[in-house]
Design goal:
Distance between the termini: 49 Å
Order of helices and strands: EEHHEEEEEHHEEEEEEEEEE
CATH topology: Creatine Amidinohydrolase
Structural class: alpha+beta
CATH superfamily: Creatinase/methionine aminopeptidase superfamily
Largest sheet: 4 strands, antiparallel
Low-confidence stretches: none
Helix content: 10-25%
Number of helices: 4
Bound molecules: 2-amino-4-trifluoromethylsulfanyl-butyric acid, cobalt (II) ion
Number of domains: 1
Amino acid sequence: MNRHKGRMTRDGIRIHEAADFAGMHAAGRLAAQILDEVATQVFVGQTTGAIDAFIEARVEEEGAKSATIGYKGYQHASCISVNHVVCHGIPGDKKLKDGDILNIDVTVIVDGWFGDTSRMYVAGKLSRKTERLIQVTHDALFKGIEAVKPGNTFGDIGHAIQNYVEAQRMSVVRDFCGHGLGTVFHAPPNVLHYGRAGTGPVLEEGMFFTIEPMVNLGRPETKVLADDWTAVTRDKSLSAQFEHSIGVTSDGAEIFTLSPAGRFHPTYDA
Ligand code: MF3
Ligand code: CO
Ligand code: CO
């Protein structure tokens, strides 16, 4: 049997076969299920380290593997990004305070396939302004997913997201992007969350990638802290992110990381 089934585009994007969708579905489903379960762990006074420990235990119980433990030296089963942290927040012993918003990002490996997804959560009470940031970020991800179908381009995805977010007077982070995935964590292409319609590689059935827009209430610029992971907004404004892993089908997208409990949007269980 050929281990490298499918083919590669000239941009180095793997075109997967019909049977590969089942592998991604299983991996995506477990990641999403763990994000459903972790909602019980988010409350005022809880530490992000304890939330991560819950995630690590659940990945292990399911006989899966964490993709992030050991990835480029990273040591945790999740990234937990609180308030002005844009992404790659390292779980630790800081306690959540009332009104804190956090992104929890989990990537698991099931039978060699990677499922990568993140959502927003709230500790305590959500303010109006913050609720809008979370809503706009959530909707921006779906604007991007709606642009996914064979014949459209990656630029169409970025354009749909940027256009929507900037019309809401918020900004799209440029310094981090989505990525191809499958039997590897990060593969071509870079999936930008901004851009011009009609530019970039053409989408083809069988491409697997993430869309994971980060949206700031203030300016888009970020900086990485001395720990070499934590990315924060330069202007200290609040930032939100949602991430799905998807596959291009004959007429649109299959979302591999849909919430089994229908709880992707955080304010549903508030
Ligand atoms: N899950 C992140 C992503 O969406 C990557 C985290 S890598 C880590 O691509 F090492 F920081 F965990
Ligand atoms: Co990702
Ligand atoms: Co992720």
